[in-house]
Amino acid sequence: MAEVHATRRERLRERCAATGVAAALVTRPANVRYLTGAAPPGAALLVGPGAEDVLVHLRPPPDDGEGGPDDLRSVVLPSPEGDAAVAAADLARERQADSLAVEEHHLTVTRHRAVSSVTEGLPLTDLGAAVEQLRLIKDEHEIAALRIAAEIADTALGELLESILVGRTERHLALELERRLVDHGADGPAFRTSVGTGPHSGTARHVPTDRRVEEGDFLTVRLGACYRGYRCEVGRTFVIGTAPAAWQIELYELVFDAQRAGRERLAPGVACRDVDRATRQPLTAAGHTEGLAPWTGHGVGLEIDEDPQLSPAAMGKLDACVPVTVEPGVHLPGRGGVRIDDTLVVRPTADGGPELLTITTKELLAL
Amino acid sequence: MAEVHATRRERLRERCAATGVAAALVTRPANVRYLTGAAPPGAALLVGPGAEDVLVHLRPPPDDGEGGPDDLRSVVLPSPEGDAAVAAADLARERQADSLAVEEHHLTVTRHRAVSSVTEGLPLTDLGAAVEQLRLIKDEHEIAALRIAAEIADTALGELLESILVGRTERHLALELERRLVDHGADGPAFRTSVGTGPHSGTARHVPTDRRVEEGDFLTVRLGACYRGYRCEVGRTFVIGTAPAAWQIELYELVFDAQRAGRERLAPGVACRDVDRATRQPLTAAGHTEGLAPWTGHGVGLEIDEDPQLSPAAMGKLDACVPVTVEPGVHLPGRGGVRIDDTLVVRPTADGGPELLTITTKELLAL
């Protein structure tokens, strides 16, 4: 794996060279992890000048059995109250870099000032989202991790569906799901598990409450596993009781059709906004214009919400090997609603089209 | 409660007025929550100019039954992809503030630039840690919330101690503790629960692994509850089996004495570094100089790690009604160690001295 990270840093180095930047200071944790395989709290990575990179730690790497990044030089700050970014910038100056690009979208104004204060004549520029752009297209190791993350989430969700749900609270169901994720080998939940019953169903980020599952409810569940740092998500809506009401079947079919339309639109070269439009259009055509989320999907990887965004204003096109969610939902205030959420990897039609990672059934189950 | 928040904003307004600042833009989530009672993701609070404050939301407040901040004007951005800080700054300009202080330790360089771009002639200054300073001394409502948080953590820990521990993994014990915290009414864990067995015991922030509890192990547990936003922590070390070894008893007594010395030093007017020294001195005198954490305690509140720091370099003195942890630990590489961690509120001697919130016994229990 060490070679993978060295190759990624080499790509960043080339990118910097192309814009005349001698060295890059990477501080955003997911970016540090992508480029080194580790993300100790507060660490900073100096890429360049020249070929030797340095990871500055606040504390000696823990003896956690996972091993550290062994292919690059590691420096531990003398005081853990220091700032690794400042120390890394100081190294860049010592090594006579003639420019240093920093992540202005991650460094606070205060930290940026502290970095400037040690770099003296060395001009600071903006690295922008250079590392995030490298992270967009995943390699097969990354996709393998996402596939396992999705399998864990599917398994946890499947087990929950076999248990008695009526009478249990949203908070307990969410906690049980998170415990099952870890039981099945997840590092932890990929994000805070959302369980919404009755009037809470169908919303994107409902925070579980003490409301109990009742007969006749819609139940919306959204969860994800984090596996070796990679995060997926799956969301499903169920009906509690023997027979769904007519409005429930109708709403479910509408969201199901919207989600399928979005999934089917995924292909290399397709504009992100076109995927959003395909997902969104069935919902707006049925009159659900209010309260729709501003996106109908997004990239996943080392973070649960990364580029690309699938939204009306999104720029850019999809590429092969980009994992995204497709997750339309409709929420009727006071009544509840439906959300269906999958993680898929964009693949060319010749390779069989989009690869569905979250394979829990999307039939409307009455539990 | 609305009145409490209005009073807090009034104090911030006075503080700004004293330094010639007309309006303040607050973006750090815990600070927004302190001043309004709510912290919707991405929200920004404009305090001033004048008496009317505005909370800018990215999305309409969720219908979560908790109610929103009802004593101040609320504005929802037209697009949730916007930046509430930029919108709030634009409002400050419209309302003809002649200066605007922002949280430079929270705003990234990129967001700060976006804010500058709408404020035109309006000079931006640094609000610094003005709100954090207001948060230092807690009122009785805040201390009551911390007291409940501590009670929940004590209860969860007490229940765990009644169960069979040998053979269970660190990860399962940590998850069970987190489930119990929620069972007993916590919003959630105050931080990631740490369970360390055998050679992992005694460290500050051990991430639970699949190691199982064995006879003869030290077992270190560190957990906390979050209740109405307020976070406490408690940490204990136990011995597994019928009789602790001599080295275990000796090490335990050493850390126990250090922790007691720190607790007994807590009083209004005492320098933070003196509390650290009282806690640290017994450990260094016994030769444990390597690997000691850089602090032996810290403030708690809306964040689990806030001012004051109890460390050798800390400036400032304690005040009454400041909740802090006292948490020395010694870790012997390969063997394990002991940590003991309490949350207490600084009180004058006339009021009975420091108020211990986490009351789980600190006797060395053999489980």
UniProtKB/TrEMBL annotation, chains A, B:
Domain Peptidase M24 intervals: 145-347
PANTHER family (UniProt xref): AMINOPEPTIDASE (PTHR46112), CYTOPLASMIC PEPTIDASE PEPQ-RELATED (PTHR46112:SF8)
Region (Disordered) residue spans: 189-209
Protein name: Aminopeptidase P family protein
Domain of life: Bacteria
Species: Actinacidiphila acididurans
Pfam families the UniProt entry points to: Creatinase_N, Peptidase_M24
Creatinase N-terminal domain mapped to chain residues: 8-137
SUPFAM superfamilies attached to this UniProt entry: Creatinase/aminopeptidase, Creatinase/prolidase N-terminal domain
Any GO MF annotation of the entry: aminopeptidase activity
Keywords on record: Aminopeptidase, Hydrolase, Protease
The keyword Transport belongs to this UniProt entry's keyword annotation: no
